[in-house]
């Protein structure tokens, strides 16, 4: 079910939102892929961190727990899941900055963050919105900042290819399965955008994407 801006609630329907966390935990081995994502992000005290499409706040909470001295923000278009995120953060005893917003129109200043994260969000976006979201992530990162994302990617085994053929017709996963996301990040201005690894699930291969906003090149004086 889509709202007027077209976002897709967790699991596709608002009524299924309470099942989102258990589904990720038990079906997709959430602890493994989100832990690996955070390992690669290298979040440190003093960093400003943004979780794009933070949902119920699991990844943002984990990031804050790993680096208590970091400022962690989360943005999501669904006020209902942000309510759940606030409850979970309070129960975990961590402070998060949570805001309503869309991946392709982030409500933050240029260069506001050292790290940007995203987990299972881009496959909900159509191609145009994926590209705009990539550009927005680049915009809100400071030079030298990094983007780490996990989302559906090209199938990594013969067993997973039939599953990929099915999911590419669901939601907006075709570009993911075809391996185009790293190219969209390059188009947005990122350097070294690439897939760094994979995580197998019953729904297909998840890919780990990494990219960096390059530092400005120094200009010599003649």
Describe the structure.
Helix 5 (127-140) packs across helix 8 (181-188). The protein is an alpha/beta fold. Helix 3 (58-66) links the parallel strand 1 and strand 2. The model is unreliable at 11-17 (pLDDT under 50). The longest helix has 14 residues, at 79-92. The protein has helices spanning 20-27, 30-41, 58-66, 79-92, 127-140, 160-167, 174-177, 181-188; strands at 48-52, 71-76, 97-100, 113-119, 141-152, 191-201, 204-212.
Any chance you could write out the topology, listing elements then pairs?
Blueprint: H1 20-27, H2 30-41, E1 48-52, H3 58-66, E2 71-76, H4 79-92, E3 97-100, E4 113-119, H5 127-140, E5 141-152, H6 160-167, H7 174-177, H8 181-188, E6 191-201, E7 204-212
Helix pairs in contact: 5-8
Give the assembly state of these chains.
single chain
The helix-and-strand class reads: alpha/beta
Compressed to H and E, one letter per element, the order equals HHEHEHEEHEHHHEE
Relative strand content: 15-25%
Our measurement of the CA-to-CA distance between the termini, rounded to an integer number of angstroms, reads 60 Å
CATH superfamily: Vaccinia Virus protein VP39
Residue stretches low in confidence (pLDDT < 50, at least 5 long) are 11-17
- Radius of gyration equals 17 Å
Q: What is the typical, i.e. mean, pLDDT? A: 84
- Biggest sheet architecture: 7 strands, mixed
